[in-house]
Specification:
By secondary structure, the protein is an all-alpha fold. It has 9 helices and no strands. It is globular, with a radius of gyration of 18 Å.
Length: about 230
């Protein structure tokens, strides 16, 4: 704990990488269990919507629309909550990430009792809750500004990995964190798919517990503000 507190940049990186892993879980649950909808990766939803509107067969419209709208709302609320917060991890960071964890865990527990199904009101509500939670998480992560780790997408991370590599004439300085981010969302998606095979609510619950752990650990290891 002292080491994390002494090196805030490393602490932020560790926390955001952990949330990248949970994002993989949530997107696997959404895509495989909620009618092929991404609740964190909005690029995927926009592409699915485009193809669906062009009348491609068997592609959903409602789910991606709901996820996109909820993500925007969650990001707006998260951004509003973080406005005026001090640089680095603050009490507001803890509040936003803890709220995300509670939403994920609560939705997972509720889904254990009443599994969401495609095309139902409850299934749509779960999509909206997950989308809003991921939007808020992305907004709070953006405020921390950990280079190459947004927690919700890795496209820009992969671009940076390749374009700034030694092969491309760069120094490859941030290559380890970029590789870790890609691997963690990959592994998270695999874990999410495995948990979905047990129950759809299990992946949400696991992601919620891990997110709450990140919020609590980040709060405990945050830089203390010295009194004036």
């Amino acid at each position: 704990m002292r080491r994390l507190r002494a090196d805030q940049a490393r602490m932020h990186l560790v926390m955001m990488l952990a949330l990248t892993f949970t994002t993989g879980i949530i997107d696997a649950v959404g895509y495989l269990g909620l009618d092929r909808v991404f609740t964190a990766n909005m690029t995927g939803n926009v592409v699915i919507l485009g193809m669906a509107l062009a009348r491609a067969e068997d592609l959903p419209v409602l789910g991606p629309l709901v996820a996109l709208a909820a993500f925007l709302l969650g990001a707006a609320v998260g951004g509003r909550s973080m406005r005026g917060a001090r640089v680095g991890w603050s009490g507001r960071s803890t509040t936003v990430f803890a709220t995300v964890g509670v939403i994920l865990l609560g939705t997972g527990v509720a889904s254990l009792a009443a599994p969401p199904e495609e095309g139902t009101v409850w299934g749509t509500a779960v999509t909206a809750l997950l989308g809003a939670a991921m939007g808020a998480q992305a907004a709070a992560a953006r405020r921390l500004a950990v280079a190459d780790v947004t927690t919700v997408v890795v496209t820009s991370t992969i671009v940076g990995l390749a374009s700034e590599s030694r092969l491309a004439g760069g120094d490859g300085r941030n290559a380890p964190r970029r590789v870790l981010a890609v691997l963690l969302i990959l592994v998270g998606a695999g874990v999410g798919a495995l948990l979905l095979g047990v129950h759809i609510g299990l992946g949400m619950g696991v992601a919620g517990v891990l997110t709450l752990g990140v919020a609590l650990l980040g709060h405990a290891a945050r830089e203390r503000v010295q009194p004036a």
